[in-house]
DNA sequence: TTGACGACAATACGATCGTATGGCTACGGT
DNA sequence: ACCGTAGCCATACGATCGTATTGTCGTCAA
């Protein structure tokens, strides 16, 4: 299932997770994957192509894991909570995932191709959240607005959980997410 | 008022704003500031020291601008809205500021010294927001929780405004902020 | 007057970077 | 049997990096 290309992409993601994007070099990726520089160059012509492929890779992985987790959701409301906790980096979501997308996001501010992938993913995420809101809380008048606010909240929480674990431990992030979801029905 | 050191820090911040942290090198900073490599080394012994000083520099600048903007606030509620719109990158806040702190945040995930400065600033921000909430909406039972949620929302909105201007134009961010603030009184 | 020192500039060093190049091996089609 | 090509490695090239070293001016205390 996992070819040599995916192995390289996993190596890159692992490097980003613990040394940041600045720690990524063709040589480091090759080392981590246990192959030569030439092998990396064979599968991806440039570093940029490797980076873009890695972004698509983490997106694909995320969608797969999401689908699996949501298969156990009893209702749209339950699915919304599962997705929210996952995105917020609350219990169950590894810090590494947040660090990776945070690194990509920062790079997106400077690289148009990376920005395009980021925009596509986040737009898709907002649509998905909006659908869950519309299905789980049909009385809401602006599910798209609710989804956009929720997505922003979750992004901010994820960063806080990853960078400030003592100010924002996962349990607090979970409480805040639940409070916001409760506001969906009340407010 | 602005000595040669501040000039170097401004140069670094300008580089981060339009090429990211990866565009920062001693040589680039020296070039942008119109001095030699040696001058940079004279004021800051290492690149890391320069980076840390730049973070403190943007913090100081931010506090100064904030204090100036808040001096025109009629009430705690008004001050809260001004600060929220500023942090969210809504109309009036430049994209560059968001890109700079986003870059620093991503770097904080990998550099403990940068992380410490980041934590200090964000903790201070949450406290300040909590005070404004407590003053402007005294009936709230958990102003610290409100502040933490608001701060996360604003961080997420700022990133969205900076990276996805068509999904999250400043006006939409402003509407979402206002909706959240309205929920302070209702929910 | 001299001499130390602060504020730079110029240059050098070793490391690492992305990428190009050329060769080797194994295999699949003709 | 043979040729091409996919897959991979070793190595080289030029650029850029952070930092160390050394020198050159002023200014100002003694």
UniProtKB/TrEMBL annotation, chains A, B:
It comes from the Bacteria. InterPro entries: BetI_C (IPR039538), Homeodomain-like_sf (IPR009057), HTH-type_TetR-like_transc_reg (IPR050109), HTH_TetR (IPR001647), Tet_transcr_reg_TetR-rel_C_sf (IPR036271). Residues 2-62 form the HTH tetR-type domain. SUPFAM superfamilies: Homeodomain-like, Tetracyclin repressor-like, C-terminal domain. GO terms for molecular function: DNA-binding transcription factor activity; transcription cis-regulatory region binding. Residues 25-44 bind DNA. Keywords: DNA-binding, Repressor, Transcription, Transcription regulation. This is AcrR family transcriptional regulator. It comes from Kineococcus xinjiangensis.
């Amino acid at each position: 299932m996992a070819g040599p290309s995916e192995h390289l992409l996993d190596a890159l993601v692992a490097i980003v997770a613990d040394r940041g994007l600045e720690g990524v070099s063709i040589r480091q990726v090759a080392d981590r994957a246990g192959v030569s520089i030439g092998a990396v160059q064979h599968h991806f012509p440039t570093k940029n192509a490797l980076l873009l492929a890695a972004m698509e890779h983490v997106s694909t992985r995320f969608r797969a894991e999401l689908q699996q987790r949501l298969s156990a959701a009893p209702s749209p409301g339950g699915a919304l909570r599962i997705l929210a906790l996952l995105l917020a980096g609350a219990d169950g979501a590894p810090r590494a995932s947040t660090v990776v997308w945070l690194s990509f996001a920062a790079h997106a501010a400077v690289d148009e191709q990376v920005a395009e992938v980021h925009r596509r993913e986040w737009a898709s995420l907002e649509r998905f959240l909006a659908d869950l809101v519309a299905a789980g809380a049909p009385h809401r008048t602006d599910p798209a607005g609710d989804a956009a606010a929720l997505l922003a909240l979750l992004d901010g929480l994820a960063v806080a959980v990853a960078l400030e674990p003592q100010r924002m431990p996962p349990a607090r992030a979970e409480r805040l997410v639940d409070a916001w979801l409760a506001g969906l029905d009340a407010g």
